[in-house]
Design goal:
Elements (H helix, E strand, L loop, with lengths): L9 H13 L2 H13 L3 H18 L7 H44 L5 H18 L1 H25 L17 H13 L21 H27 L1 H5 L4 H8 L1 E2 L3 E2 L3 H29 L9 H14 L4 H10 L1 H35 L1
Antiparallel strand pairs: 1-2
Helix pairs in contact: 1-6, 1-8, 1-11, 2-3, 2-7, 2-8, 3-7, 3-8, 4-5, 4-11, 4-12, 4-14, 5-11, 5-12, 6-11, 7-14
């Protein structure tokens, strides 16, 4: 089996978690929350962060990947089946993120460009990042962090003059079904998807800080998206914001300071393109590493190009249209992720606990 030779610091893991979470969520989540809960969409955000922290706090973070844990806990055959399930869903996640990029670009920025060309351009950068490895990806995340944080702060601060507090009224006027739907959607995208990031935790130099970085990254990314949702409500109004597929992008279009500063929606495009690139490349690297560990390969670099070609083709054909994609992500995808991020890890923890008890009883019987 390939030995891990690349290592990243806990701080770099924190940046990767932050980028991963705000990836597609910074544009997709506000639209869904506003559509279902209008002026109380921020309530769903707060509840989702709370449940996400509960999941992150309960999970264990051993110095092994899910592939290694599944093989050890379930045996070679059941463990291989479990590993294939994780690889399949990581593959689906990468195609979803790639399709998010092409949908946004073709509807908002370059409407006459074919989605396949956008897929190809993005996947080339992802292939190169996956080829270089997680250490280079993490260092790049450190460099680009200001390129995401500073534009986001400018986007919010420049919209402050247009914000009105009365657009939040009436408070807590929502249906329980809509509240559950919005919270579940936000919990699934992106927090339950963090289960895929666990594939890179063995690369951390100080494994004791992994849980802390997950907690901080969850809170930081959750607050970022919550602030974006609140800004959409305060600046645009819940009714107007809920009619747009990308209300955060609309915030940038509304900024106008005289004849000098206008149409700064490019800030939103910078935030989103950089963050979703890191999300795709993290999942791409996790797929490579999973295949290597599952089949006991020595190297992973030769997988980069063929895997990238397959993802590019599948991303174009797997989703018939945007409406179908949005419906699937809203009503089905969070429940699949719940099985992957909660049920399966709970099974691994239970099995490890049972094995420890059996080993302890065996030691006691030998001593007596």
């Amino acid at each position: 089996m390939m030995q891990i030779k690349e290592f990243i610091t806990p701080k770099q893991l924190l940046f990767l978690i932050y980028f991963f979470c705000i990836g597609s969520a910074i544009l997709a989540v506000p639209a869904t929350l506003l559509e279902t809960n209008r002026q109380n969409a921020w309530v769903c955000s707060v509840l989702a962060i709370g449940f996400a922290l509960l999941i992150v706090a309960v999970l264990r973070y051993p110095q092994q990947t899910f592939i290694e844990i599944a093989k050890k806990a379930l045996g070679p055959y059941a463990g291989t089946c479990m590993s294939l399930i994780y690889i399949f869903f990581m593959f689906i996640q990468s195609t979803f993120s790639l399709r998010d990029i092409s949908t946004f670009m073709t509807t908002q920025i370059v409407p006459e460009t074919l989605p396949t060309w956008i897929h190809a351009l993005v996947i080339l950068a992802v292939i190169y990042g996956g080829y270089l490895g997680i250490e280079v990806i993490a260092r790049t995340a450190e460099i680009f962090l200001p390129w995401i944080v500073v534009p986001f702060l400018l986007l919010i601060s420049l919209n402050i003059p247009q914000m009105k507090i009365d657009r939040l009224y009436p408070f807590f006027e929502f249906h329980m079904d809509d509240l559950v739907l919005g919270t579940t959607y936000f919990l699934g995208n992106p927090f339950m998807e963090l289960v895929f990031v666990l594939m890179i935790t063995p690369h951390i130099k100080d494994g004791k800080k992994v849980k802390r970085m997950f907690v901080i990254g969850t809170v930081a990314s959750g607050l970022t998206i919550t602030i974006a949702v609140a800004a959409c409500i305060l600046a645009l109004g819940a009714n107007i914001a809920s009619m747009h597929s990308y209300p955060v992008y609309l915030l940038g279009k509304m900024i106008s300071l005289g004849a000098t500063i206008q149409h700064v929606e490019v800030l939103v495009a910078i935030i989103w393109m950089l963050s979703i690139f890191f999300k795709v490349v993290i999942v791409f690297y996790a797929i490579q590493l999973s295949i290597v560990q599952l089949f006991n390969l020595r190297v992973r670099n030769f997988l980069s190009f063929p895997l990238g070609l397959i993802i590019t083709g599948v991303a174009y054909y797997i989703i018939p249209n945007t409406a179908y994609f949005n419906y699937f992500e809203k009503y089905y995808w969070p429940f699949y992720l719940f099985v992957l991020s909660v049920c399966f890890p709970a099974l691994f923890i239970a099995l490890s606990y049972i094995k420890k008890n059996k080993a302890a009883k065996g030691d006691r019987s030998q001593q007596t």
